Amino acid sequence: MSVLDDIIGGVREDLAARRVAVPDADIQAAARAAAPARNAWAALGGVTGDVQRDTRLHVISEVKRKSPSKGALAEIPAPAELARRYADGGASVISVLTEQRRFGGSLEDFDAVRSAVDVPLLRKDFMVEDYQIFEARAHGADLILLIVAALSDEDLRRMLAVARELGMEALVEAHTEEEIDRAVAIGATIIGVNVRNLKTLDVDRGTFARLASRIPSDVVIVAESGVRSVEDVVDFATQGADAILVGEALVKDAMPRDTVAAFVSAGSAAKPARR
Ligand SMILES: O=C(O)c1ccccc1NCC(=O)[C@H](O)[C@H](O)COP(=O)(O)O
User: Which candidate in 92, 95, 194, 197 is catalytic?
Assistant: First the structure.
């Protein structure tokens, strides 16, 4: 069994318990009653037509306590305070991991961050049921994660449609050429190239340029995982990233506000006008 399969097994068990506590009809009603979602695609530099690319390299800053690959990363006693620092540094979107068993996250963390900042929020979890999408919206999410390796094309299309019907977008995450092609085929407007293989946990930054070149120019490209330094940010920006998603390096940083600002500044300076 791969790490991803193992994580998803736990996610399904936890989801079943939440579904008993809050039935489908109730979570759907809460999602539809929530304040309108913010436009995460525009916040990440999405533009329509043959216009100049957004010149900014956008940063998605993640609230992440631990991970299967690294174990404990940071305690994060006050996720809201960390999120405020991210926003002050210029994060375009904040990602909050809500998976509990392997990442130490929760919907309580998500609620705390939602009440602290006004930037678009990504609910970062392993989405396998539509219920989780309604749950994300009910808690104020603007963006959800869909992992191509974990879902069939039918599931991807339906879940993307559910997210859009609720006013959200999806970060559709891929790690191979075939997964990129599947993400493009379902009409993803934000595609994440995760340089971490979720089945082996190996990180290979070289994956990014090879995969990004297959993505149409009107799609927002996010480079995910493995950013440790300004040099990594400059590499991803030069190779076509519109945004980077950073967890470990920021939660371990004593001055996350300054580091986010430095990543935005260096990445924006390195970003080519067209790709
Ligand atoms: O981070 C992991 O070890 C991991 C393992 C299995 C599935 C997902 C995993 N991480 C999710 C992510 O995509 C990262 O949290 C995100 O890209 C940030 O990565 P990093 O900056 O390297 O913390």
Answer: 194
d(CA 94, CA 96): 7
Locate the domains of the chain by residue range.
3-270
Q: What is the CATH number of domain 3-270?
A: 3.20.20.70
Q: Is the pTM of this model over 0.80?
A: yes
Q: Centre a 10 Å sphere on the Cβ of residue 71 and count the other Cβ atoms it contains.
A: 7
Whole-number Å distance, alpha carbon 50 to ligand 1 midpoint, is 33
Q: Which atom of ligand 1 lies at the shortest distance from residue 224's CA? A: 17
Is residue 63 within 8 A of residue 79, CB to CB? The reply is yes
Phi, psi of 233 (to 5 degrees): -60, -45
ipTM over 0.90: yes
What integer pLDDT is reported at residue 49 of this predicted model?
Answer: 67
Mean pLDDT for 173-190 is 98
